[in-house]
């Protein structure tokens, strides 16, 4: 089993910054893609950013240039640096990791979510 522990959410003013962290632990040999999803109030969960094991990144269009995803493979941890935050970035942010399995598709695990509120 794999557990994900997220941290770093909170209340921040527009234009401010936050850094989210997500540490994976448990029965892990390697992790493929790691990512962050966000769910704004009243909206569906959507991909914010992802990063492959090799470091290739992917961002939602409205986050490019403001958010940066990174990972530390030695610590099984993924980060999301969020700068120039806007009201519309408010929501719950969920960490996800994909663990490879022998002769089967990757298994995806989710964190419990961390609240980010952008408000003056």
Short structural summary:
By secondary structure, the protein is mostly beta strands. Helices cover 0% and strands 57% of the residues. It has no helices and eleven strands.
Identify the notable features of this structure and list them briefly.
elongated, seven-stranded mixed β-sheet, mainly beta, 120 residues, four-stranded antiparallel β-sheet
Blueprint of the fold:
Blueprint lengths: L1 E6 L2 E3 L5 E9 L7 E6 L6 E6 L5 E3 L7 E6 L4 E6 L8 E11 L2 E7 L3 E5 L2
Parallel strand pairs: 2-11
Antiparallel strand pairs: 1-3, 3-8, 4-5, 4-9, 5-6, 7-8, 9-10, 9-11
How would you describe the overall organization of this protein?
By secondary structure, this protein is an all-beta fold. The model has no long low-confidence stretch (mean pLDDT 96). The chain has no helices and 11 strands. The chain is elongated, with a radius of gyration of 14 Å.
Order of helices and strands: EEEEEEEEEEE
Which structural category do the helix and sheet elements fall into? mainly beta
Q: Give the number of helices.
A: 0
Gyration radius (Cα, Å) is: 14 Å
Global outline = elongated
Assign a percent range to the helix content: under 10%
Global mean pLDDT: 96
How much of the residues is beta strand, in percent?
A: over 45%
Regions with pLDDT < 50 over 5+ consecutive residues?
Answer: none
Number of DSSP-assigned strands: 11
Distance between the termini: 40 Å
Largest sheet: 7 strands, mixed
């Amino acid at each position: 089993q794999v557990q994900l522990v997220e941290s770093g959410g909170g209340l921040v003013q527009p234009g401010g910054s936050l850094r989210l962290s997500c540490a994976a632990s448990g029965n892990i040999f390697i992790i493929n893609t790691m990512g962050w999803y966000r769910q704004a109030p009243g909206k569906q969960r959507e991909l914010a950013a992802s990063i492959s094991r090799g470091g290739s990144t992917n961002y939602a269009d409205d986050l490019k240039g403001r958010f940066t995803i990174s990972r530390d493979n030695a610590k099984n941890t993924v980060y999301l640096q969020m700068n120039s935050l806007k009201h519309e970035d408010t929501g719950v942010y969920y960490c996800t990791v994909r663990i490879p399995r022998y002769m089967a598709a990757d298994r995806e695990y989710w964190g419990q979510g961390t609240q980010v509120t952008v408000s003056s």
